[in-house]
Amino acid sequence: MLLDFDGRIEEVNAAAERFLGQSTAALHGKLPAHLPGAWGPALAALAESKPQSLRLSGLQTYRTHTAHFLDRGFTRRFIVLEELTQELIQQEKQAYGKLIRMMSHEINNSIGAINSILHSFYHYAPQPGPDDRPDYTQALDVSIARNTQLANFIGNFARLVRLPPPSPQPTDLHALLRSICRLLQPQSEERHIKWHMDFPSTPLFLNLDAQQMEQALLNIAKNALEAIGRNGNIWVRTTAQPPSVVIENDGPR
């Protein structure tokens, strides 16, 4: 945002219009301190060489800072607004991923040691009396099984935050979409949600990782079901040139 000699807004670019939710005409002539919402107080307290962070509703986060230049011997200020939302989300995602991998490593190390000790206890299975022996071995079996399930769960969770590199193969996108529709059909029928597949019966082969693409499309389809709730429609359309897939729903949210 470029300010005039009196410190009022003179020009803004398209990004500033989007951030502030107002047009250039609406912003022209206003003092930054008089902008609506949290913007006004934040920009009023802005000082040179002291950038500030501003978090609006939800996750929307911005960095604001101001500087000046000389125009015909007079000082003019400008304000720079930078959106940090995606950068912060990415940083948080990396931090959570690192934490989950560290927890997975520690938990699996402990589970491995515990299971090793439990397996060694089978050596003592003949020692209890005939009445107690089944309970003894059953307790060992249950403990080892539960530990193994926990290790598998933690391992799968760690793999979720560290996707392997994609392995592209020629894959029929239409067949992939039909399989997802079949998978969600019982749930859809229970909710009275109809699927409309609007694409040719001929295959549409694309070079992609089938497993990762299937998971991504499945997540989108589940979100569509959740958005509808009950009694609605889901449309699935594809185009060959350029290759694309569109999934729409008529849900209220």
UniProtKB/TrEMBL annotation:
Signal peptide: none annotated. One of its GO terms (molecular function) is kinase activity. Residues 102-253 form the Histidine kinase domain. The keyword ATP-binding applies. InterPro entries: HATPase_C_sf, His_kinase_dom, HisK_dim/P_sf, PAS, PAS-like_dom_sf. Keywords: ATP-binding, Kinase, Nucleotide-binding, Phosphoprotein, Transferase, Two-component regulatory system. Gene3D superfamilies: 1.10.287.130, Histidine kinase-like ATPase, C-terminal domain (3.30.565.10). Residues 1-30 form the PAS domain. It comes from the Bacteria. PANTHER family: PEROXIDE STRESS-ACTIVATED HISTIDINE KINASE MAK3, SENSOR HISTIDINE KINASE. This is Sensor histidine kinase.
